[in-house]
Amino acid sequence: MHTVIIGNGITGITAARWIRKLDSTHRITVISGESDYFYSRTALMYIYMGHMRQVDTQPYEKWFWDENRIELKRAWVDTVDFDGKMLNFADGEKMHYDKLILAVGSKPNKFGWPGQDLDGVHGLYSLQDLEAMERHSEGLKRAVIVGGGLIGIEMAEMFHTRHIPVTFLVREQKFWHGVLPLEEAEMVEREIREKGIDLRMGEELKEIWGDKAGGKAKLIVTKGGEKIQCGFVGLTAGVRPNIEFLAHTDLATDKGILVNEYLETNIPDVYAMGDCAQQREPLPHRRAIEAVWYAGRMQGEVGAYNVCGKKVAYDPGIWFNSAKFIDIEYQVYGDIKPKLPEGQATVYWEHADGKKSVRINYDAVSGAVIGFNLMGVRYRHEVCEKWIEEETHIENVLQTLGLANFDPEFYKEYEKDIVQVYNRETGSNLQLKQRRNLSSVLKFLSRT
Amino acid sequence: MQIIQKIGLAIFVIALVIFTLVPGLDSYKISAEDTKINNEYHSVAFERAAQDQGLYEREYSSTFALQSALKDVFAAAQKDLLTRAGEDKSGIPEGVSEWDFKLGDWLFKDYFKFDMYRDSSIGPVSGNPWLWFGLTIGLALLGGLMYILPKFLRPPGIKNDHIYHSSMTRGVNLTWRVLFIVATVIGVLTYGFFYMSGNLFWPGISALVMGIITALVFFAQKSIKHRPAKSASPPKFSAWLGIFTGIYLIGFYILLYWAPVHIVGWISMVSPLSEILNGGTASQWFLYGVLYTLIILVMGVRMMSKYMHNKYQLIRTGSVMFFQLGFAFLIPQILTLLNQPSMDLKNIWPLNYTFFFEWNINDLLAGGNLGIFMLVWGTVLVIIGVPLITYFYGKRWYCSWVCGCGGLAETLGDPYRQLSDKSLRAWKYERFIIHGVLLFAVIMTGMTLYGYFSGVRQIGFLNTGTVQQWYGFFIGATFSGIVGTGFYPVMGNRVWCRFGCPLAAYLGLVQRFKSRFRITTNGGQCISCGNCSTYCEMGIDVRAYAQKGQDIVRSSCVGCGVCSAVCPRGVLRLENASEDIARRAAQKRTIHISEDQIGVL
């Protein structure tokens, strides 16, 4: 049985590792055109900033693949012949597979802007994108970044460390307000501006002009008509599945490759997972395409079970995510909507320094806790998850809130202040009964 | 970079240049009173030869010139005594042993120590030591602080930008690393041969042990299959400033340990300070103590500026600064001033390998109540203190909060923490070497104590004194000093602590098998970015645990907390709690997919 995985990102590699764990007989081949070895895509920015070398972003040593009999092949797949179960590589070589996993990831969105394919216009997704950024950084006078998501802010931070001025165009009126509630969005905006980044909210790209030779980006025009000189344009307005090479085949696609809950495509023995997969029937509170590291990892694991003949439906449980907005860490557990839905209530505490906050949303009627949104404060995943899962009453959560605290030792604990916010807003008189303490956490977690 | 910082850096470089030149500035002129030869035959013969060669008339421009002249006179005196003794030894007076009469080679080192050179120096430095103290150490402090203090104006947060772009901290490529290691090994074994008076046994057995360990790692532990090992090379060319720094530090340690006579310029410079603090003239160890303490203080301030956002780092750094300044430096000085036995009360056996040496026990026993307290204190720390405190807090209570070696590593060494080797092979080496050193320390101390109580100092072919001598040379000086610090820019700031320190091995065994300390990981939040592993000074692949949601229980973890500080997603936390440790550390937990559903995990 030869299982071939296209894509050596977190999804493809997690799938390969789990297939090997579950079944020692499979021949496993992982194909990537991007890099020889699996590296953590989320760490691209740290290579550019000089925090790490590229090799440091590789979670496994090189011998790991031999030892686990996972064959690695560096090649671009040109086309897939699903009937003949054959991959055709760009260099003309072919490879047969018995089972195929498509974990081909995504690529930066381009919305048909004039000049979007000029030299010096790049997203930040792959090693090649990073190399392009590096190449254009020397002597760069200004970079313009288009699109205010997680990658946009990473790119802004990257240029900032090289003292390259950045203009940051964000279409929304508030930063990442499609995801972050208003107060948190404003906090991030303050952080971006404090670092000296020229943030333009409510501003969009109209077109990019090239230099005389017409090859290289030299200025952009905004929808507002402003012209901004720049040697680099970062496109960070989200990503879309990287599935163009699969067009005109029998593979059913929409925005992504359509899969059922077992991550099976419409073609037998062909699976899709990670950024490129689109759930035909997404779970409640989840998107059909989840272009997130964590979802990719979970799908890789689930996919491996299904490839090995153990039917497991993809059920990632309670939503969680994390990011870092320059110096502000962000964690979320549960379904936090940017705008508080009808029937929900929120406890929101913000530190006087404006760089830390805790938000807990709960059902206004039943009191069941729904989600945690954390800025600059670390909370324990398992504890928050258990509270949400068990629909714990907000007042119980608040009184034992110390269980969730995951900040390093000696850090000030703010749980008391959070309880005070609740007391003030609801007229209750709750007391914090549980401070940060691992033993209590372990007892709490083992309680059924 | 701000203008103040640039000026500070320039001042520091100037101070470093002057410092480097200081040992060459004075000249030396000795008089008959300077030589302190306490054997009348030797003394008379030496005086005769000295007069012959005009030793006392000339002024020598450097310590090397003086040493060479002394060697000539010494050789003449040797020859003279040999002639006088006669072929049949009939010239040796009645009742005097041959070796009290003849002048042995080894006595050269004993008779002409650095203090003789120091007392005979004339010139700018010994004439005006405070001026030169100010021009070197003073200016370096000023420049260093001018460079460091403006860093407090930066916004708090992770400050690792450009570490791998800097020629100081980028690390060296494999060729350079091999060069450093091979040169050190050959140098040490060769010098060791002479150090042990031409005895081939100790260098030989050491080379054999190194060979055995390599064989064990590669063959018994199958590391030969693990190729290629994870690269430790920098992304571009090697760090030239780092190589320079490494060589400078190694040179400093060689002079300090084995040729203090050539750094009497530095020693003269700090002598007035020594007289204030402990009432005596300075030795090379006082010089070392002053530099060591000031470096920990200044670089500790730098560490604090870097981790402003992290209270654990601030308190921990304050702790190592306090213990260095108070316990390692000031208290022993003051005790000496008060004519009491002096001891670094936090320097625990077997790191403090001379603690159970006969001379130390005798000194302490002769030192009244305080001496006896120190003897009991040191012993209780080893037997009860270490296991008990490590049980509650892990080895960090010592290694990254109290210890002097750890203190230097966490301050001066912080810019190099990313250079530790994270490969599995390095871990295998680490386990053999560090436990080997612990074994060596235990055997040596066992022989020492046996000798102390029974009077037997020869066991089989092993002589206790020789074992002690080799341990002091090979482990005490070379490994902990030359490799421990000189290798900062080559293999990271914890080479000694990770591969060599026998106390760390002991603490580590307690931590691994009986301690409440561990690092917990935050559920599924790890993004495998590698910051934790990269900045682990002990070379622990923290990410390997974090991405599986496992707790980290490793004997080598010194609990510096930097993995937790640099994690961009808040995944790691240092904890002390006893429950559950075995299960959580052993098992892979998949919290994001329900276990019932899969049923095979």
Question: Nutshell version of this structure?
Answer:
The complex is a heterodimer of chains A (448) and B (601). Chain A contains 11 helices and 25 strands.
Structural account:
The complex is a heterodimer of chains A (448) and B (601). Chain A has eleven helices and 25 strands. Chain A has 448 residues and is an alpha/beta fold. Chain A folds into three domains: 2-107 and 240-307, FAD/NAD(P)-binding domain, CATH 3.50.50.60; 121-237, FAD/NAD(P)-binding domain; 327-446, Enolase-like, domain 1 (2-Layer Sandwich). The model of chain A has no long low-confidence stretch (mean pLDDT 96). Chain B is mainly α. Helix content of chain B is 61%, strand content 3%. Chain B contains 28 helices and six strands. In chain B, the strands form three sheets. In chain B, strands 1-2 form a two-stranded antiparallel sheet. A two-stranded antiparallel sheet of chain B has the order 3-4. Chain B is globular. Classes of the chains: A alpha/beta (448), B mainly alpha (601). The interface between A and B is large, with 64 and 65 residues.
Question: How are the SSEs ordered, and which strands pair?
Answer:
The complex is a heterodimer of chains A (448) and B (601).
Chain A: E1 2-6, H1 10-22, E2 27-32, H2 44-48, H3 63-67, E3 70-74, E4 77-81, E5 86-89, E6 94-96, E7 99-102, E8 106-108, E9 121-122, H4 127-137, E10 143-146, H5 150-161, E11 166-170, H6 182-194, E12 198-201, E13 205-210, E14 217-222, E15 227-229, E16 232-235, E17 239-241, E18 257-259, E19 270-272, E20 277-279, H7 293-307, E21 320-325, E22 328-334, E23 344-350, E24 357-363, E25 369-375, H8 381-389, H9 394-399, H10 415-426, H11 438-446
Parallel strand pairs in A: 1-2, 1-7, 2-3, 7-19, 9-16, 10-11, 10-16, 11-12, 18-20
Antiparallel strand pairs in A: 4-5, 5-6, 8-17, 13-14, 14-15, 21-22, 22-25, 23-24, 24-25
Chain B: H1 3-21, E1 27-28, H2 40-53, H3 63-85, H4 98-101, H5 107-111, H6 114-119, E2 121-122, H7 124-127, H8 129-148, H9 174-195, H10 201-220, H11 240-258, H12 264-278, H13 284-306, H14 311-337, H15 358-365, H16 368-393, H17 396-399, H18 404-411, H19 424-454, E3 458-459, E4 462-463, H20 464-486, H21 488-491, H22 495-500, H23 502-513, E5 517-521, H24 531-534, H25 542-546, H26 562-566, E6 572-576, H27 581-586, H28 595-598
Antiparallel strand pairs in B: 1-2, 3-4, 5-6
